[in-house]
Amino acid sequence: MIFSVFDMMKTIISVKFSILFLFCCLSYNHLSAQTVPSFDYQERYYVSFSGGYAFGVSAGDQGGNFLGQAVPANLMSNNRGTLGTGIPLNLRLGYYLTNNISLDLGVQYFSGARSQVQTVMLPNNLNMIQAEAFTEQLRINPSISFYVPIITNMLDAYSRLGLMVPVAGAAFIDAKGSAMAIDNAPALPGVNFERMERISGNFGMGFTGALGLEYALKPRLGLFAEVEAMHLNITRNQGEFTKFRFVDGDGNEVQDLRSVLPTSLLETNYVEALGENSNNLLSNPTGFNPERPMDMPTSTSFYHHLSTQVGLKFRF
User: Fold this and answer.
1) Do residues 313 and 222 touch, judged by C-beta distance below 8 A?
2) This protein's superkingdom (predicted)?
3) SS3 state of residue 299
4) CB–CB of 122/178 below 8 Å?
5) How many of the other CB atoms lie within 10 Å of CB of 274?
6) CATH classification of 44-257+299-315, choosing from 2.40.40.10, 2.40.160.20, 1.10.287.130, 2.60.40.60?
7) What is the per-residue pLDDT for 133?
8) Are 107 and 51 within 8 A, CB to CB?
9) CA dihedral 91, 60, 178, 196 (to 10 degrees)
10) The pTM is what?
11) 280 or 9, higher pLDDT
């Protein structure tokens, strides 16, 4: 049986989370089987700062459909790529329930790397349409951690399980190409288009798991390094072109298309399915209103990643 790359990545992620869960269970059983020592320090609270780099592990639809003079004619295709690659920056405030178990609430700012998600070759030796996807997100990450001493009061191994909940941010599709791709007017040779689409999503909740080592630099200061896996899907909700213009060869604006195009070509309302009452020419040709956002079928974007991170923890 032949598996797709997507199926392989899903299997790998499932195995990694299974291993993390098993490690946590074994750690808990080990700690429960022994007498948990009393705190050898007064500082039960802690704050940590960390950052690193995340590698996206699966690709999905990213929106920003193209409809224009491409090959084949009137090409319409979903952008595909991963939004999981980028830089995570974390701030955590936590509390030690025991020397071996802690709870914390993390805040993560994720700055996504640009990923080329679509390239369309145009006829007549025109330039290609190129589209890049990236994301900027603010996330909340409540979690529980289990610590196993390796060298007493010096080096601990730990595992962490938690939820990842985006609370702000969006995905973006940055596209550019020949103006002839979207308007075949005789006056447009040598003119290009530029557009940026902002895509917001419905509420989503993901899962995280990490394995790491923490080294005590001082009684209240620790240095840690970890590998984290995250699984997060977000379904598209609304899209809007925040930039859509024609520019000349020097990048100077020739025309701002947002001032002349109808709302249906600038804003998108993503729905589960198109029906006879949807604002879409295909499903509702007689009731379509060009001055309302276009209804389009939604899809899911993938933010799954594996990351390596380092940070500092202060106890107080």
Assistant:
1) yes
2) Bacteria
3) coil
4) yes
5) 15
6) 2.40.160.20
7) 86
8) no
9) -30
10) 0.79
11) 280
CA pair distance 263, 239, nearest whole angstrom: 11
Q: If pLDDT is split at 50, 70 and 90, which confidence band does 187 have?
A: low
Structure tokens at 65: 């459909």
Evaluate whether 295 touches 287 at the Cβ level (below 8 Å). Answer: no
Counted residue by residue, the chain has a size of: 316
pLDDT, tens digit, 9 for 90 and up, residues 28-67: 444 444 433 334 546 789 999 999 999 988 765 544 443 3
Alpha helices in the chain (DSSP H): 5-32
Distances (CA, A) of 232 to 20, 43, 51, 116, 313: 17, 34, 19, 20, 26
Average pLDDT of the chain, as a whole number: 81
Region 160-165: mean pLDDT is: 97
Report whether pLDDT(301) > 80: yes
Beta-sheet strands, E only, within the chain:
45-56, 60-63, 79-81, 86-96, 101-112, 115-120, 129-151, 155-178, 192-201, 206-218, 221-231, 233-247, 253-256, 267-271, 294-297, 300-302, 305-315
Which three-class secondary structure state does DSSP give residue 259?
A: helix
- The answer to whether residues 48 and 90 touch, using CB atoms and an 8 Å cutoff, is yes
Residue 65: DSSP 8-state: -
Output the CA torsion 279→280→281→287 (10° steps). Answer: -20
